[in-house]
Model the fold of this input.
Amino acid sequence: MALVELRDVSKVFPAASRHGSPVRAIDGVDLDVEAGDIYGIVGYSGAGKSTLIRLVNALETATSGSITVDGTEITGLPERRLQQVRRGIGMIFQQFNLLRSRTVYGNVAYPLEVAGVPKAEAHERIAELLQFVGLAEKAHTYTDQLSGGQKQRVGIARALATSPKLLLADESTSALDPETTQEVLALLRRVNEELGLTIMVITHEMEVVKSIANKVAVMEDGRIVERGSVFDVFSDPQQPVTRRFVSTIVDDVPDAETLARLRAVHPGRFVRLAFRDPAVRQAEVFAELIRRDVTFELVHGGMEDVGGRTFGNLTLSLRGSDADVDAALHAIGARLETRELR
Ligand SMILES: Nc1ncnc2c1ncn2[C@@H]1O[C@H](COP(=O)(O)OP(=O)(O)OP(=O)(O)O)[C@@H](O)[C@H]1O
Ligand SMILES: [Mg+2]
Done:
């Protein structure tokens, strides 16, 4: 059984006023998050990402469907049992949500106090956690003297305090600069690899998904419209919304304006080659062109590496007789998707 299972889950918020209409924030969602996954959830604003996460940690109750976390069906559970379930789930936020009146130490101590952990035991746990997130020397600093990245590390230490199995991260790096983002993502990767936590990461940045997730689901209008391994989804997106997200980090065909500019500089026929299957080597493809007396230049696109596998889209300008170019494209087309840009 997956660590988190959603079956046909919907969440409808009642109309805000008498003239308004109800909002179906989550609409018939099925989802399996396996133990050990770092599962990215992406979607534009209003797609339902935060609502989905809030259903998983029972901050919202589903209107229909069933949600199971670590073997416990949480829909319809009484509040006292829900508190137990929530203790097995850590959460980090975009705005960190730290207590300003407390030091770093005090913030990490908070969930342990709530759980009634004895002081001495808590002390040991906090020291261990601050060591893990690299903030041992900042234990007695107040949080408003910390950088954004340090604040999020406190947030992570606090989320880990009660030793949860599952960590939920809602836009946890959106308030950080790119370098700090990478630091926090590296820490989340250690949380997954060294401590064995399963992580659900909500984000609108594909860069975040690309750098830490193994699986991704794309949400639109409360539904999951596409999902799969990060490699599969990134290398061959099916839905328009997924293509838009993937295009933020993987170039596909040049847009019309770019294409016009390229044509002015590069004569020849333009062809986009889609490298998806790691078994299809660029070297073989280029050798085929040379063998057919077709000369080529790479004018647009690039290759991406996801989880050690490479894919990408390369647009080439090809020069040669029409017959030679046609024959070359025919031969290459048997190995990968080619598209002539006209
Ligand atoms: N408490 C609420 N009451 C009424 N409507 C809500 C409530 N929470 C969310 N919604 C609505 O549900 C839909 C999904 O909202 P949600 O916050 O889950 O989106 P999101 O994908 O997290 O967006 P963002 O990227 O902006 O954070 C939106 O239309 C939102 O207005
Ligand atoms: Mg949100």
